[in-house]
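note to self: the first set is below, dont mix up w the second
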Amino acid sequence: MITDNKCIQGFIRLCTDGYAQGWHERNGGNLTYRMSEEEVLECQAYFNYDRPWVEMGVQADNLKGEYFITTGSGKFMRNVSLEPVANIGIVEINERGDAYRIVWGLENGAKPTSEFPSHFLNHSVRKKVTGGLNRVIYHCHATNLIALTFILPLTDRDFSRVLWKSMTECPVIFPEGVGVVKWMVPGGSEIALATSKLMEKYQAAIWAHHGLFVSGPDFDTTFGLAHTIEKSAEIYLKILSTGKDILQTITDNDLLAIEPEFHITLNREFLSIKK
């Protein structure tokens, strides 16, 4: 069966793990994965090329002919593992890079996630800036992170510093920091373009009052990035909930001391000291 393929198993597991974290109420959130040539060949015997092409309203030269696994529009993450063929699908991109057709899954008239154009643009950016390494785009409604967007200034610097200083792993996992998008209508071209600009330099973008948008080379790394960001936000909110003054924290000098040990370079724009 096609669902025995490792890439589809990994896709299903991320959907299940995200739901277990409480990040996917109702039909919230979405996931896409750019398949490798080897994975396409392994799955191709199950493909049906009879469905029509659908124009996306966006175009990317570097994604011509690619195949993506995607969650379905209006589908619930909690149901992906129960009935994959009805809740996820594989789409092929045409040779102009501006339309897709469903070749497997998404049965009974289902369509790719309404955020697919946003994912598509950001896959294009992340493929370019990572030399093809990034293959996953994941959007979730991370509870504590959303809460932070109501009390922190909506700037890359403010969010990056709070997340870095709330948990030691954060500067190691995302030394470039995170980007922040002000509130915009979900699923539109405005939020897609704003996010793609941030994805030129960040692995993660926070959508104010909405959720988290992350990228990575594989399912484990991408989920781990989202999980780390959300846990750091949770820690910060728990600190605030005590009502007590913060007596000690990770200083900027501490952050810089991490660099040689983990072979990273922190984004100097977000540090108060320059070295």
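second set (the one i keep forgetting abt)
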Amino acid sequence: MSTLAFEVKASYAFIERNFYIVKRYWGWELVWLVYSIVNSLSVSYIGFGMEKLGGQGIDSRFLVIYLAIGTLVWRYLSSVFYWVTDVIGMERWEGTIEYTLMAPIQRITHMLGQTAFAVVYSLVHTAVILGATLLFFDIHLAQANLTGATVMLIAGSLSFIGISIVGAVLPLLFPERGSQMTHVIIALLLLVSGVYYPVNVLPAWLQVASKFSPATYVLDGVRATLLDGAATRSLWPYIWPLLVIGVLTIPAGLRIFRWAEHYAKRTGKLHRNG
């Protein structure tokens, strides 16, 4: 078997392993899905609440769609983020961290399998939430460019994967609470990316920070396709920053992860979990 074929097979093995983990913990997956649906519905209902609080001059239908898109996109991106950053925590939980990190495969092979599963899982997870949302709200997608929205999500995945690999370093460096420390990354992105409000309501310096968040471009692009029916070919101004962020952060993330892995091996932090 050639080296490339071996690495591809090994990468697929991680995808298959994650599938069986999801299947094993189906109860947790069901609870998390219900929570995600309820959370998305709760945020979307704020649109109708604003009409009640602010009067009839507010377009509640537009607000509901605006918020629903924000929650769905954010659910997708945060799901990709947590599946990738939890790569070490998952190995510790399963008791396989030494076997995985000592296996004769390249680290990029491991990450490729993890990220591929993260994207597929998150797409399915988000599609189910979308289906549930459509049952509660009268949202018409006849004019929406669903293909363009999917392209934006996939492009956003590339940039979020790079950031997630950097975040995956924290559980290596801080075994006791490293997984929880990754929340600060997603919280900062949530603040500046315009998930629930336009970026231009932020202070000027945070608006500058929003330009470095990949979620900003994903949200703007998806909203353009679903609210305005923007053509896929017109999405390049949103896509190219995502590609640049991905090209820069993925190699940097892999390099930082390798350093953190070597450090954890030297200091005996691989297996510690408290």
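remember for set 2: Residues 236-267 form the longest helix (32 residues).
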